[in-house]
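Dear Dr. V.,

Thank you for agreeing to look over these. As mentioned in my earlier message, I'm a first-year student in the group and I'm still getting used to reading structure tokens, so any feedback on how I've presented them would be very welcome. I ran two proteins. I've put each sequence directly above its structure. The first is here:
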Amino acid sequence: MKLNALGSRLPRLTFWRGLLFALWILGAYVAVIRFTKGLGAVTNLRDDFPWGLWIGFDVLCGVALAAGGFTVAALVYIFDAGKKYHAIVRPTILTAFLGYLLVIVALLFDLGRPWNIWHPIIMWNPHSVMFEVGWCVMLYTAVLALEFSPVVFEKFRWRWPLRVMRSLTIVLVVAGVLLSTLHQSSLGSLYLIVPQKMHPLWYSPLLPLLFFISAVGVGLAMTIFESFLSHRAFRKELELDVLTGLARGVILVEVIYLTVRFLDMAGRGTLSFAFHPTREAGLFWAEIFLMSVVPIVIYSVPKFVVHRTWLFWGAVSTVVGLVMNRLNVSITSLEGWGGAYFPKWQEIVVTAALVATGFAVFEWVARNFPIFPREETAEEAALAGEKPAYA
């Protein structure tokens, strides 16, 4: 650390901080162009291909990768999975909260008229899937803010609000699970209206169910992924049995996902497309192996599932496979009808800046707020009303 003229500390410039600042500068430049000259100036979107990277990755992937929030909360508070999992609640809630905030920012970039984003609040259209998604995202973001608020109250020692929010924990968790289930599946429902335009490998009347199942699996994998990064960045280490328990959950969910998907394809006669020598077939098998097969194999081998490095790479494979799946559904499957699409560098910069911002904010919050478990002092126990900090 260095001191400036006022004597305050300046963060040491590292490669990652330099990259972050560069992305912020480029992102700000792109934002000015986008909001002054429109989508056409910074994207390769067209009338026949109106949804690209900002929907396929920033929204579809962003929402799915934030699924650890409701998955882990349900595991701990509804299914009563044991006290050992309490340690992962706050980091996953923080990740989900940041994820949804960044999804909202991404929507502001993608919407043709972002200043009208408030319209669904008063202009109701209950027959629209997008209306339901919009309301669920708004409400679940509010729920995540409330679920995260005890961290802020503990930091500033606000006794009464802390006790009130802890008394509402179960209500918030149930509301979060309900809202997440609705909009995770509804994101898949968005594509049910274009069956004739999507490639047979990705269109399915079960898309809502497949979106939900895959979100649950990647939510568990993201928790393992976060644990590894937290250990590297903050030296905060979770017990190995916590990570192996999550890995077993990934196996179960991915087996269910593969069973549902392949039975559905076989029943509708579309499985044969996976064996054609096409680019689409290659991308299909890539997502299947990365999202499901690789983590199932890694986490089924006893010597791998108790090794942190293998746990991490199994989680990485699941996350990358999920990203491929959402991009295949939103982009690859529609290219046969709308023509080829590849994002402009401006689209990639905005996406990279949002992801980098998420990492940066997580780091700042983790360093300044009680996110990770620690031994509770008598004073803190009294502040919490004689309840353990992670109950």
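The second protein is here, in the same arrangement:
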Amino acid sequence: MVEPRYLRTVKWNDFLQILRVRAVEEADARDEMWDAATLRRITLAARNPIDRASQLIAKSRMPALAESLRVPVVPGWIVAFSSAIAFIAGWCFAALGQEREINLLALPLIALLLWNAAVLLFSLFHGLKKPDRARTPSWLEKLLDRFSTDAAPGMTDIRARFRTLAWPPMLRRANFRFRAWLHLGAALLAFGSITGMYARGWSKEYRAVWESTLLNENSAQTFFRVLFTPASKVTGVKIPLDEIRQMHRGAEAYREKTGAALPWIHLYATTLALFIILPRVLFALLESSRANRVPALELRSAEWRDYLAAIHASAQGDGATVEIVTHALSLDDASHERWRQLARTRWRDADSVNCHTIAPGVESDFVSAWKPVAPRVLLVFNLAATPETEVHRALAESVMTKLNSTNPSMVLALTLDDTELKRRWSTFADAATKIETRTASWHEVMRGLAVEWI
């Protein structure tokens, strides 16, 4: 099967739009954001899930809520400020010494090179690993949680569903972007060091010296040869190894007029560029690329496969059929769409529905004559009715028996339609409590049946 193009090119903002729409579809049981007809029309007309999400957001009845479904974003000024700090720290690291001397072994740049070598080896090992969907460290989740905002109140279920869907990929993306910034910060620090060396050398004449308890003149020559040979080959600047003896401060051969600092500054700057700036920039690009691939990686996961397949099936008009059987409920166009949308909350690929309605008193006659054909059946009861074991439970049991005798793989789900009861009790102050009590009594009557509730 050819992978859809949008899976290879999906951007983070487009992915967030899809996330918002999915959160609403799966948590908005009252169709407060879109009515079923609008949802179906746009699904049939959209070219792909990105286009579908964009159109649905534009047609939202509650645009403020849709816009409030956001993930934490680190303010840009924090990134700019920390980048400036990295550059300034590098500038300070490049202090050329006192009394117009550069002590080649005392420079913090040696420690900077060693530290970056260790980090780059670790980054290389980590960078070769295939990006996965493993959990991001909890400290990063707590940090980003401080930047989380709720711009609009209400619709708690939708917000909870959005957070469940959005935070895992957001944290993985933030992890990669944070790694990218660390590499970029190290590159800025090294660049600041280079800039600081040349800036200080512009207005003063520095001399290069060295002194060490651990190194003698021969080992110092070896050390500088190994350290600066790559930079020398790139720039063509010769390593002044023949001046090492005269540059050894405190030795008998030490001469104050030898050891011009400029060749050593060129070699240090090139070494920093080769072994810090260049690899750090490459790793920053790698981590940025991994961050950019998070949406596509997420959409290819099992978590999203059924949802995208259901959208595709609905758009192609070949979604699965659900048989809906209602009891003591009127059958009209609005109810038809409402129950179809309800079926989609359980079966994402539900497209067409076959509806049957049973009038009170003829339950046995209906079940005897009924021939179920769809693999999924949704039995809808009227919440306004008082549940009775002899009527409602008996109907559910007889429907189950009929399905098992027809095809044991058929699935039965139960749901309660509260439209009539809400209208009837709309003026009661304790309507919500009364509805919860009535719902609990229905579940009690059906207790023990091997069915699932929607």
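From my reading of the second output: The two ends are 33 Å apart (CA to CA). The chain is about 60% helix and 10% strand. Does that match how you would interpret it?

Kind regards,
E.
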